[in-house]
Design goal:
CATH architecture of the largest domain: 3-Layer(bba) Sandwich
Number of helices: 17
Strand content: 15-25%
Distance between the termini: 39 Å
Strand order of the largest sheet: 3-2-1-4-20-19-18
Helix content: 25-40%
Shape: globular
Bound molecules: NADP nicotinamide-adenine-dinucleotide phosphate
Structural class: alpha/beta
């Protein structure tokens, strides 16, 4: 590419994967247009990271540097697949990078999974974080006992939000509506249940430690769950799983604690798989099968023992991993829930599709922390830049032409400067009530705020 005709790249999605790709492409003098379905950018950082984890959100400052680069534009409130297709993007861009994340959840595939009172972590997290598409969800928190299925960091987020006091959440950017609903919650016991043992739990020590520091909730662990089989001991001692060792130390400490009379309990349980949710109109009980572990160290899996316990509960939060959603016209691996790709080059029948790339969770699946996406995006961008000289040039290398097309379709595109106006309005609303921001939870509200000075 020449200075007068830089490489033009469309990035689909404005979460961490998208922004790390943008940063690497801008450093290589490409022009980057980032498409985002919502008026607000930052994807998972805004709508996935827990409201009581502001430090993790501070990564936005880095993404803002890319967003303010003269060769970058945000086309917010523009959904690829609805407002413009991937195929159409190819008319205006030399390359397209898919960065749409993992927007739905994995299913358990058990009877009663869809009963009222059974929720996905995806929808609960998106709801309390103010995602406009999830504000119509109603979470019935009027029961005594809630079950969280899964033991990843998302399950920990859900369990923590359910057991924190209103005071602990009041100065976060949780939505006013969610804070009110949580203030009225009658839940006294949350049981976070894993199908394997403490050594195999997917949560990380920093996140687990927080569960032992809640203001009005005891973290409870049964010491019997911490007795390890030989293979689990080998995972700690031979394979040296460092996070697992730290987790086990913390769990041992929780198990030794005396209950302090706090008004809530967070019980961390192992070796159980959900088999069925029952209750007629709504969840009233869950059947859990006790598991044993089988397999070599490093590859142990849960095997049902046949012993079933019936646990009374009024709410179940399924947190067993996210899943990518197919994009029209893009080859998709249904089993893995990712776009078919080889190191970020999208493939069809094992052959790279020229000019089409993927980064982040839609490329590799929902794993790793936010920073993991930096190396992930770097790999994809490296391949894109290597391919660039051989890519056929797009027919209409013009941002104005894209904007004209979108305008003709009635799309109200939100630019990055307009987002900053919305952002400032949210921060001002928050300051009035002692919060870092009060998010707009409605697209029309955001669109009105973008032009208000
Ligand atoms: P995850 O880490 O993959 O955890 C999924 C959990 O679901 C595991 O405990 C898994 O158990 C369990 N599971 C899967 N299928 C199951 C089934 N059929 N029945 C019972 N349990 C089942 O996923 P995640 O919690 O959604 O997190 C996604 C990524 O985001 C992770 O990399 C996570 O670390 C990251 N994240 C980080 C933070 C943070 O840094 N604070 C916060 C949130 C998320 P098995 O191990 O037995 O499969």
């Amino acid at each position: 590419m020449t200075a007068s005709r830089p490489l033009r790249v469309a990035i689909v999605g404005s979460g961490p994967g998208g922004f790390y790709a943008a940063e690497a492409l801008l450093a290589a003098s490409a022009e980057v247009d980032m498409f985002e379905a919502l008026p607000a950018p930052f994807g998972l950082v805004r709508y996935g990271v827990a409201p009581d984890h502001p430090k993790i959100k501070s990564i936005i400052a880095r993404y803002q540097k890319s967003a303010e680069h003269p060769s970058f534009a945000l086309l917010g409130n523009t959904e690829v697949g609805r407002d413009i297709s991937v195929e159409e993007l190819r008319r205006y861009y030399d390359a397209v990078v898919l960065a749409s994340g993992a927007q739905t959840d994995r299913r358990l595939g058990i009877p009663g999974e869809d009963l009222p009172g059974s929720y996905t972590a995806t929808e609960f997290v998106a709801w309390y974080n103010g995602h406009p598409a999830y504000q119509d969800r109603v979470f019935d928190l009027s029961c005594e006992c809630a079950i969280v299925i899964g033991q990843g960091n998302v399950a920990v987020d859900v369990a923590r939000i359910l057991t924190k006091t209103t005071d602990e959440l009041a100065d976060t950017d949780i939505t006013a509506r969610a804070l009110q609903a949580l203030a009225e919650s009658k839940i006294r016991e949350v049981r976070m249940v894993g199908r394997r043992g403490p050594v195999q739990a997917a949560f990380t020590p920093v996140e687990l430690k927080e569960l032992g520091e809640l203001a009005d909730c005891d973290a409870v662990v049964d010491a019997a769950d911490l007795v390890l089989n030989d293979a689990s001991r080998a995972e700690l001692e031979v394979l040296k799983w460092r996070d697992a060792k730290k987790n086990c130390d913390l769990l041992t400490e929780f198990a030794a604690r005396k209950t302090s009379g706090r008004s809530r309990r967070l019980v961390i349980e192992f070796y159980q798989s959900p088999k069925e949710l029952r209750g007629g109109d709504a969840v009233k009980e869950i059947l859990m099968e006790r598991n044993l572990l089988a397999g070599e160290p490093g590859a142990q899996r849960a095997v049902g023992s046949g012993r079933i316990d019936v646990v009374a509960c009024g709410a179940v939060f399924r947190s067993v991993g996210y899943r990518g959603v197919p994009i029209a016209g893009v080859p998709f691996d249904e089993k893995a829930g990712v776009v078919l790709n080889l190191e970020g080059r999208v493939t069809r029948d094992a052959v790279a599709v020229p000019g089409l790339y993927a980064v982040g969770w839609i490329k590799r699946g929902p794993s790793g922390v936010i920073g993991t996406n930096k190396a992930d995006a770097a790999e994809t961008v490296k391949h894109l830049l290597a391919d660039a000289p051989a890519l056929s040039r797009c027919a209409e290398p013009s941002r104005d032409a894209v904007l004209e097309l979108l305008e003709s379709r009635g799309v109200r595109v939100v630019s990055y400067p307009q987002w900053r106006t919305i952002d400032a309005a949210e921060v001002a609303r928050g300051a009035a009530v002692g919060k870092p921001r009060e998010k707009f939870v409605d697209v029309d509200e955001m669109l009105s705020a973008r032009t208000r000075a």
